[in-house]
Amino acid sequence: MAAAVLLGLLALLIRLIVNSRFADFAVVRHYLFNRSILVGLRNTLVISVLAQMVGITLGVTLSVMRLSKNPVLSVTSWLYIWFFRGTPVLVQLLFWFNAVPQVFKTFAVSVPFTHIVLYQKPMVLFMTSFMAALLGLGLNEGAYMAEIVRAAIISVDEGQTEAAQALGMRSGLIMRRVVLPQAMRVIIPPTGNEFISMLKTSSLASVVLYGELLRRASDIYSTNLRVVELLLDASIWYLVLTSIATIGQYYLERRFARGASRELPLTPLQRIRRNLVPGRPWFRVLR
Amino acid sequence: MVDVQGVHKRFGRLEVLRGIDLEVHRGEVMVILGPSGSGKSTLLRCINHLEKIDAGRISVDGNLVGYRQVGSRNYELKEKEVAQRRAEVGMVFQRFNLFPHMTALGNIIEAPVRVRGASRAEATKRGLVLLERVGLEEKAGAYPSQLSGGQQQRVAIARALAMDPKLMLFDEPTSALDPELVGDVLDVMRALSGEGMTMMVVTHEMGFAREVADQVVFMDGGVIVERGRPAEVIGAPREARTKAFLSKVL
């Protein structure tokens, strides 16, 4: 009964949308594969993947620092997480792009305590939209990843560390070979969520003029005024990206479940195949 | 081989070891008995420096465990040095603690390859020999979750042996096993003692203690209550506390 009411309401909603002609779907279709939009799509993917990679690397480092017995390391990590989680990512993006080049005029890499300069560039040229977006999104993500990795490391049984210690392994080796591989199973699902969230958060990079999907769409509608149609195009592509990421996450989780359960559940594809071909024996995936 | 003198250990306000003295000679098997909470597991863990001691001294094969003596003071060793000493002492845990993401063989060759720098081929060859010794040569590629408790514990023993330890510590190795699986593990331990391995075993298996032990130590409340040959301590205990304990477990 409840389902029937819901379906009825849904049908009503669809009719309302179609009848209102709030969007010209010919225009939506026209711009969906527009060159500029597709470049934006690529840029969204590039910045999301890179920023997430920066985030994961930072997150692992920060979480290991946070769990260190050395107070300098753990306090530094705590301060980093406190700051980057405590301020809006939008502010951080603007900070990198607008404030940093005002304060620091040049960007240089030099050998410490010498005058040897390896790399030098005016800050305005170094801090491009891309760089600001990567730093803003990546450093912020690092703080969140750090908490995810820390929780995962803590979840690994203490006996694992003790067994490794008893074999003469040292803490760095134990972390790399014993603890982190087991923590991966706990890290993967929330990291998938983080990446899906990153795909959408990357739209904030439009404020530092990075040419990702939303920026490209808004550039187009600011000239042709087809606001609804172009925002719909952007939304469609975001949905496509997040859907693909969701599927990828499912298979990744499955892969890292090895060793935890003796038999893995069937994937949706395997389930479909089983149902389509009657008489075919159970396709069991062991280990 | 093992020399323990006046060892004290406290967890917060609770003193779990209150002056332990004992000696294990090369090739000897010592079985430590006692009710739960008597400090026997803690003592074993101190010998591998998994727990720090608060007073006294422990040495294995002439080397002070976890500390370096300079003049009359002891300084804790660096992690690297602690690890080097631990590598010479094998330990088997009640809950096996195999690495679940590695196969049986992977568990065994991990430390020889990563700690001792042995080549993978060499370690694998040796690992297969060890697996055969514990009767599991056909399980080399199995993950711990695919093995029974008894099989896991035998892999854990092989893993410890892969480091060629001078001394083996067994912390209730059969307590987490189904009764019918205990025998296989004890057989492996019996064979090991027959080959002259120095062993310290915390266990409730009286049959094993009687048959294999050279010395039996009964602990209660953080002190050694009674010690001697198995026939003396288990067969004819003098202390009331030992008698009370044995009447419950025998």
Average of per-residue pLDDT values of chain A: 89
Biggest β-sheet description of chain A: 2 strands, antiparallel
Strand percentage of chain B lies at 25-35%
**Can you summarize the main beta sheet of chain B?**
6 strands, mixed
CATH class of chain A: Mainly Alpha
Instruction: Spell out the helices and strands of chain A N to C.
Output: HHHHHEEHHHHHHH
Helix content of chain B: 25-40%
Q: Which two chains form the greatest contact, residue counts included?
A: A-B, 24 and 31 residues
- Measure the end-to-end span of chain A: 43 Å
> What is the strand arrangement across the widest sheet of chain A?
1-2
Oligomer: heterodimer
Bulk shape of chain A? flat
Under CATH, the homologous superfamily of chain A reads MetI-like
Share of helical residues of chain A: over 70%
Q: Can you count the beta strands of chain A?
A: 2
pLDDT below 50 for ≥5 consecutive residues: which ranges of chain B?
none
Helix tally of chain B?
9
Using DSSP, what is the number of strands of chain B? 12
How many structural domains in the coordinates of chain A?
1
Radius of gyration of chain A: 24 Å
Tell me the layout of helices and strands.
The complex is a heterodimer of chains A (287) and B (250).
Chain A (H helix, E strand, L loop, with lengths): L1 H19 L4 H8 L2 H32 L4 H16 L2 H15 L2 E5 L6 E6 H4 L2 H27 L2 H9 L4 H31 L11 H12 L2 H30 L11 H9 L11
Antiparallel strand pairs in A: 1-2
Chain B lengths: L1 E10 L2 E11 L4 E5 L6 H8 L7 E6 L2 E2 L2 E4 L2 E4 L2 H8 L2 E4 L11 H11 L5 H14 L15 H13 L5 E5 L7 H16 L3 E5 L3 H7 L2 E6 L2 E6 L1 H6 L4 H10 L1
Parallel strand pairs in B: 3-10, 3-11, 8-9, 9-10
Antiparallel strand pairs in B: 1-2, 1-4, 4-5, 6-7, 11-12
